[in-house]
Design goal:
Helix content is 43%, strand content 11%. By secondary structure, the chain is of the alpha/beta class. The protein folds into 2 domains: 223 residues, no CATH class; 221 residues, Rossmann fold (3-Layer(aba) Sandwich), CATH 3.40.50. Helix 7 packs across helix 11. The chain starts with 10 loop residues before the first helix and ends with a helix. Bound molecules: 2-acetamido-2-deoxy-beta-D-glucopyranose (2 copies). One 2-acetamido-2-deoxy-beta-D-glucopyranose binds next to helix 15. GO terms for molecular function: dipeptidyl-peptidase activity; serine-type exopeptidase activity. InterPro entries: AB_hydrolase_fold (IPR029058), Peptidase_S28 (IPR008758), Ser_carbopepase_S28_SKS (IPR042269). Belongs to the peptidase S28 family.
Length: 475
């Protein structure tokens, strides 16, 4: 998932905490929610056109007549009349040209004289159904609306794009957009011939305890159990300090800014949630040597506490003059900004509160990140950000509705290929049965979207070849 490079609004400055380093949550979040990464060739990206299509604000209410413009990208470099359309589905990120200028889907479009498209998900990137992100405006942000946008896009392209009227359509997605591939095939089976879902979380679950368990297992697998133990002991030591009225020592160690209250549950939960998410970022985006490198850094110090805190300080944004604002209110203030700012956290968190949960909590004892980010932390955030109706039971009911509607781990779809990385904690919410999905050893989240390469492991190569073979069958 690549780099937005878009300005981040640091509302902390407006609040007068001018010493604060307000980018920490934003950077960690980006790492976990970026557009799935594919190496890009800038020259080829020049072939991609940026276009807009009119969409209904509400596909499910005929009295609602407002419309908006959805962004999409097209690359026709290989297209010959009658060839298929390959669509990469945008998820919770801004779309970029590189995704359809390189990679395995691009290579398949070349093989089949296909048209390449990349659709942007409503409320992300430049696709703004309404001018702001107020609580009220967010009511039209829902995957069902986004799938209906895609159905309209496909129908419109087939009706208007020269040479496409009889073409078959293949859809591809990574992470959330891979879940969309599955759900689109289920909801609109006649519009697409097949799909490839890389790292698709299909089961909505509020207290997603498995995430940190797999993150821990991946650290053991790649970085060794010494590293896992050090993280576990370092975090336990910090927790004990808070419990024994030595919270101010942790505050000094991690250079936390003044508003951080060592006796506030929400502040402490926010800190430990962020610490664990920094490790999630390392695991989820792992490529050769990444987890190992972090473990080396942590192990290089003389003690658990020093090894852990030195690493965290470097991740918080190395600076001796600044403090790190990890207070709960600082985070809520940033997320309460209803302007489109380049950050997508307000939108994505709303979707989790309203559709999926997927809170990566400390609810399991079989993980190294301690006990201080319970599900209550996340559900409190939902209510504080979007309104008091977002109680835990409401969020659970919404997640259950999602599973009911899309079938959870039994989506009953044909012609969808599921792949996962073994190291990827998200796979716990996906289909992992060997007969239905491919788990690629020692790879992370969405790691298989690039072209077939001599650097691929045998299993990686086999999975990519399987996709190509299935696409030949479907077309
Ligand atoms: C449908 O849209 C109309 C016009 O915006 C609105 O007044 C009405 O409340 C909407 N109905 C539902 C069920 O959302
Ligand atoms: C959204 O809801 C939250 C929580 O109730 C509230 O604090 C906030 O003022 C609301 N914001 C907008 C812009 O509607």
């Amino acid at each position: 998932m690549t780099h937005y490079g878009v300005g981040v609004i640091i509302t902390l400055l407006a609040l007068g905490f001018s010493q604060a380093n307000g980018n920490i949550f934003e950077r960690t979040f980006k790492k976990l929610h970026e557009e799935p990464y594919v190496p890009t060739n800038q020259n080829r990206a020049d072939e991609v056109q940026t276009l807009w299509i009119e969409q209904k604000l509400d596909h499910f209410n005929d009295s609602e007549t407002r419309t908006w413009q959805m962004r999409y990208l097209l690359n026709d470099v290989f297209f010959k009349a009658g060839g298929p359309m390959f669509i990469y589905l945008g998820g919770e990120w801004a779309i970029s040209k590189g995704r359809i200028s390189e990679g395995h889907m691009y290579d398949m479009a070349k093989e089949h004289n296909g048209l390449l498209a990349y659709t942007e998900h409503r409320y992300y990137g430049e696709s703004h159904p309404l001018p702001d992100l107020s609580n009220d405006s967010l009511q039209f942000l829902h995957v069902k609306q986004a799938l209906a946008d895609l159905a309209h896009f496909i129908k419109t392209q087939k009706a208007s794009y020269k040479g496409l009227s009889d073409s078959k359509v293949i859809i591809v997605g990574g992470s959330y957009s891979a879940a969309m591939v599955t759900w689109f095939k289920r909801t609109y089976p006649d519009l697409v011939a097949g799909g490839w879902a890389s790292s698709a979380p299909l089961f909505a679950k509020v207290d997603f305890v498995e995430y940190k368990e797999i993150a821990g297992q991946s650290i053991v697998l790649m970085g060794g159990s010494d590293c896992y133990n050090r993280i576990q002991k370092g975090i336990a030591e910090m927790e004990a300090m808070f419990a024994n009225k030595r919270g101010s020592e942790v505050k000094a160690l991690l250079k936390l800014c003044e508003p951080f209250d060592v006796y506030s549950d929400l502040d402490v939960w926010n800190l430990f949630s962020e610490i664990s998410d920094i490790f999630s970022g390392v695991v989820q985006t792992h490529n050769t040597g990444q987890i190992e490198g972090v473990c080396q850094k942590i192990m290089a110090e003389g003690s658990d506490l020093v090894g852990l805190s030195k690493f965290l300080l470097s991740e918080f944004g190395e600076s001796t003059s600044k403090c790190n604002d990890l207070s709960y209110n600082a985070m809520i203030d940033t997320l309460s900004d209803t302007r489109y700012s380049g950050s997508v956290r307000r939108q994505w968190l709303f979707q989790t509160c309203n559709e999926y949960g997927w809170y990566q909590t400390s609810g399991s004892a079989s993980q190294p990140f301690g006990t201080k980010f319970p599900v209550t932390f996340y559900t409190t955030m939902c209510a504080d950000l979007y309104g008091p109706q977002f109680s835990k039971s409401f969020i659970e009911a919404r997640a259950a509705e999602t599973n009911e509607y899309f079938g959870g781990l039994t989506p009953k779809v044909e012609n969808v290929y599921f792949s996962h990385g073994q190291l990827d904690p998200w796979r716990a919410m996906g289909i992992q049965d060997e007969k239905q999905a491919t788990i690629i050893p020692k790879h992370a989240h969405c790691a298989d979207l690039g072209s077939i390469s001599i650097d691929d492991t045998a299993e990686m190569r086999a999975s990519k070849e399987r996709v190509a073979e299935l696409v030949r069958e479907w077309l």
